Amino acid sequence: MSAGWAFNPRATPWRRVEKVSDRVWLIVEDDRFNEHPFIYVILGASKIVLVDSGVGTVESSTRRCFGDWLFNWMGETLGKDAAALPLLVVNTHVHFDHVAGNSGLASRSSDICASSNDRAFTVAALDPKRDASLARQVGCSELQPYVVTRWLEHGEVICLDGEGDELRVLHAPGHTPDSLCLWLERER
Fold first, then answer.
1. Where are the strands (E) in 53-159, listed by range?
2. What is the model's pTM?
3. Which of 43, 83, 98, 116 suits a disulfide with 52, CB 3.0-4.6 Å?
4. Mean pLDDT of the chain
5. What's the rounded Cα separation, in Å, for the pair 53 and 140?
6. Dihedral sign, CA of 176, 28, 70, 59?
7. Among 65, 78, 57, CA closest to 14
8. What pLDDT is recorded for position 4?
C-alpha cells in the first residue's frame, strides 16, 4: 500500500481548522495517509474534550509530537486558562486514524476513553496478531501503545460544567463494533 503519495508536510499537522460554534472546533489533520481525520475540540467550563486524536502526525526532522502542536494551538486559540483545563480524550472507534495520537496525549490527559460495547475488539487494536486498528495494514508507525483508562457506557454523561452542560455517549456499532457518538445537547 502506498501511503502518503500526496502528503505535503506543513508547519503544523492541520489541513483545516474551523470554528463550528463558540466552543467547538473542527481540526482536520493533514496526515501522510491522506485520511484527513476529523478531530473535534469541545471547550467546557471544567474540561476540554478531544473527540478522536487522529493519526498523530510527528514532524520527522524534529520529532515534534502531535500533542505539542495540539497544546500550542489550544493555548493560542482558547487562551492559556482554558488550555490549562483537564483534557479528556474520547475515541469514536479504534481505527488508527482516530487513535494514533493517543500515546502523545496520554501524559497530558485525565483519561483516554473508548466505548465499552466491545472491549475485546478495542483491546485488539494494539495486538500485532489481531490489529483491529488497521495500522499494520497501512504501515502506520505513529500508532504506539496506549491504555484506555475509562470505558464509556451507552447513555453515560460527560459533564462539561456541572450545570447540565453535558455530552451523552451513544454506542453506534456498525463501522466497527466499538463505534460511539456524542450528543452535545445544549448545542444540538
1. 87-90, 109-115, 150-152, 157-159
2. 0.90
3. 98
4. 88
5. 14
6. positive
7. 57
8. 46
